[in-house]
Amino acid sequence: MFTLIKEDKETKARLGLFETYHGKLQTPSFFPVATQGAVKGLSPKELEEIGIDGLLVNAYHVHMRPGVSVIKACGGLHKFMGFPKTIITDSGGYQIFSLENFRKVTDSGVTFRSHIDGKEFFLSPESMVEIQQELGTDVVVPLDECVKYPSSYADAAVAAKRTIDWAAKAKSYYDKDTSGKFLFFAIIQGSVYPDLRKFCLEEVLKLNIDGACIGGLSVGEPKELRYNMLSLINSALDKNYIRYFMGYGLPEDILEAVSEGIDLFDCVVPTRLGRTGTVFTRGGKIVVRNAPYAKDNTPLDETCPCYVCRNFSRAYLRHLLNVNEVLSVQLLSYHNIFWYKQFMDKIREAITAERFSQFKKDFLSNYKEK
User: Fold this and answer.
1) pLDDT in tens, 201-221
2) What is the rounded distance in angstroms from the CA atom of residue 207 to the CA atom of residue 242?
3) Catalytic amino acids?
């Protein structure tokens, strides 16, 4: 459950405490993405060293491989992955959005054609909840329909209504469980149409949910429209609900979203960019693969106390990348995830000290593209 601790006086930024069956964590917080049950390039031991409090796992992908029965037989997701803290499983809604050529959507659910072997299978709102409960997740997220940007009002309205109907079916199935181990978040859709967003929010709140996920943004819309939607949702939502912006995560964007009252984020950006040689520093992103770093004996970020920055130079890391050494993936991903954890810690410290606006201003003035 979520407890609001402090609200910023100048912005809508907040401090909170989020508690699940597997632990407590302070918000705002960032969850690395473990799409197929692992954060690419990092072991659970390294995640523990960094201090990661939670992960986002893709229920669709682990349902496909290795399958729910395998994970359940191994004691559930936490034991299977060796990660004892909070796990959120997403709904499959992003697959509806991204696997356009592999699925068919109806009011009853989604028929997918496996991206692995082409086999056809069907997911309903109820079966998606059952899958997540059998996986042993901490937070169940119902099936939803996300539309592209731009999208017509009519198409966005159909998707929002379908998301509401699916959430109601999912919650009805979820309510049969009496274990008390799971929380239920609902997803707010409606594209960039304020009335649809508000309608979707009002309807899912009637279901007695534990938190609100913001979906269908950061899909190509202008940032101004995105922040307008975040502001609207924050204003319309009771302050005691946690706000989770799914799949969102560049540092400058996180700062803006925190300013609009968002509490929780997940994104593949830190590890995906790390694998290609892009790393985050106090002065902005740098591509350490590039030639100017060939003889650079400085750490990735001189202000970062992580294991990588304390022990390795940019020149060495560039060398690892250029010879395709797997260690480069591990070290750069480690740094990026550590950097994100420190970034979120500093955001919370700034809100606590009532200097979030100044922190945001200072950070953005230093954070430049290289």
Assistant:
1) 999 999 999 999 999 999 999
2) 15
3) 90, 266
